[in-house]
Structure to design on (498 residues):
């Protein structure tokens, strides 16, 4: 079931009301049943895959906790991780690896006849697989008690707000909340609905409107020159942020209404001044997962190699992160780009700190944010493009796009200085002649302003400090914007495909 669907507008209030009306001891069962309904709205029989993973890791967690023998504990862990991962590999990566094996076999003139699987990827498989794996690993590390209640554990994996696209929760944060008694609380209700409304606005109004222009240009990039390609890439950076953070806002808000606190997944990522800092702010649940379960073990294993070991661990970790996003070498390259830049930042940190000490903090911050956003935008081209050739073509046209924008701005400033009234008239003509384009730029401006407010004060902190009349005006404006400016068709969230 999509958050941005009419079905969810009925599902959410019914489930929330039912949760508070149900006796406390039956609430887990009610939420589990509701989560099953939510997931089965996509492809019903794929819930069996979820049940299989749940059964494997539930059993493995208990056996790991009850076994004292170190080798047996490790065996149960390996069996659990391999079995659960095989489900992900089968549905998401089998055809990718099979296609590569076919290419190698063809090159070596080997006979290779294994065919491809005609199966659809279950929605959100990577997310709930990683959440399930984190539970088993934490039990193995003795940082989490094994959950003996199969229903509670199933709900941990299947909790509907974050089932399909995260955040990827840890058992220490979420499991105990299913046993706590949550009473109806008006302030939590208000905070949750505020968050959900803002998430719906970011998805339906900002992300989905930007998606139309982005899809048009990226769908046939060779028909466009530098400026449209650069603009589409910048728009995609804002589209993917509003799409994914919008989902997270709805997930966190819907959980908060019922009394559950999920982890934050974004903390003003476009305010980062280094790519290292960016990954502490972007998709936090994934970046912290790969840090704790992949990077740290690798870097500890290669610690004798010093900084070279850290660089190798970083590259492997981000190649894995790229592959997590999709079964394509474009995603792997996207991950390696980030791993390479993170490694450069590590190796040059002392040198950069010395240079930045000669400049005011405001200059360093502005330059840092421009550098991060420019790199992120360029790397996203490989994330969004259909082929390497398309991605390289788009990136190669960035210099001419920047040059075109520079000439346009320079001409505008010159005309404004010599003939301000004529410039004003020309601007109005341009505005009314390109209303759609101006609307998209306005949406980007909304994101920038909201991010500045979030960074400086906290968007919802500010909202709850203003008089009630202005707060209600804000609600009405968002609702009317969604109804009149939002994309009304049920557009999938970008991260659903992962």
């Amino acid at each position: 079931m999509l958050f941005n669907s009419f079905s969810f507008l009925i599902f959410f209030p019914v489930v929330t009301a039912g949760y508070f009306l149900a006796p406390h001891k039956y609430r887990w069962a009610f939420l589990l049943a509701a989560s099953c309904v939510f997931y089965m709205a996509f492809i019903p029989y794929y819930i069996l895959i979820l049940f299989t993973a749940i059964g494997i890791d539930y059993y493995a967690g208990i056996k790991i906790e009850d076994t004292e023998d170190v080798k047996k504990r490790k065996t149960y862990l390996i069996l659990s991780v391999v079995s659960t991962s095989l489900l992900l590999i089968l549905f998401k990566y089998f055809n990718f690896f099979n296609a590569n094996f076919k290419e190698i076999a063809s090159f070596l003139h080997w006979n290779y006849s294994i065919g491809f699987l005609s199966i659809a990827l279950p929605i959100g498989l990577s997310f709930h697989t990683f959440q399930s794996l984190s539970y088993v690993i934490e039990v193995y590390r003795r940082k989490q008690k094994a959950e003996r209640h199969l229903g509670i554990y199933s709900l941990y994996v299947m909790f509907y707000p974050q089932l399909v696209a995260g955040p990827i929760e840890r058992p220490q944060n979420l499991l105990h909340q299913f046993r706590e008694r949550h009473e109806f609380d008006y302030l939590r209700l208000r905070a949750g609905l505020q968050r959900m409304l803002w998430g719906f606005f970011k998805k339906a109004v900002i992300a989905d409107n930007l998606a139309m222009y982005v899809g048009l240009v990226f769908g046939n990039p060779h028909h466009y020159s530098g400026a449209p390609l650069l603009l589409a890439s910048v728009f995609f950076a804002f589209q993917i942020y509003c799409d994914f953070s919008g989902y997270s806002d709805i997930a966190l808000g819907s959980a908060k209404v019922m009394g559950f606190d999920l982890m934050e997944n974004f903390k003003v990522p476009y305010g980062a001044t280094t790519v290292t800092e960016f990954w502490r702010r972007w998709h936090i649940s994934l970046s912290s997962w790969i840090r704790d379960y992949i990077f740290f073990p690798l870097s500890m294993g290669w610690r004798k190699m010093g900084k070279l070991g850290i660089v190798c661990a970083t590259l492997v970790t981000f190649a894995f992160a790229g592959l997590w996003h999709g079964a394509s070498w474009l995603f792997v390259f996207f991950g390696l780009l980030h791993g390479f830049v993170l490694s450069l930042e590590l190796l040059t940190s002392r040198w950069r700190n010395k240079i930045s000490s000669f400049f005011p903090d405001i200059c360093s911050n502005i330059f840092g944010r421009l550098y991060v956003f420019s790199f992120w935008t360029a790397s996203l081209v490989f994330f969004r493009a259909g082929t390497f050739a398309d991605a390289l073509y788009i990136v190669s046209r960035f210099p001419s796009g920047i040059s075109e924008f520079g000439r346009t701005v320079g001409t505008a400033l010159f005309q404004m200085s010599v003939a301000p009234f004529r410039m004003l008239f020309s601007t109005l003509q341009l505005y009314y002649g390109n209303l759609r384009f101006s609307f998209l730029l306005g949406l980007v401006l909304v994101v920038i302003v909201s991010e500045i407010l979030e960074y400086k004060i906290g968007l919802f902190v500010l909202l709850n400090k203003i008089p009630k009349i202005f707060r209600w005006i804000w609600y009405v404006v968002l609702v009317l914007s969604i109804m009149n400016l939002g994309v009304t068709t049920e557009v999938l969230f970008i991260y659903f495909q992962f």
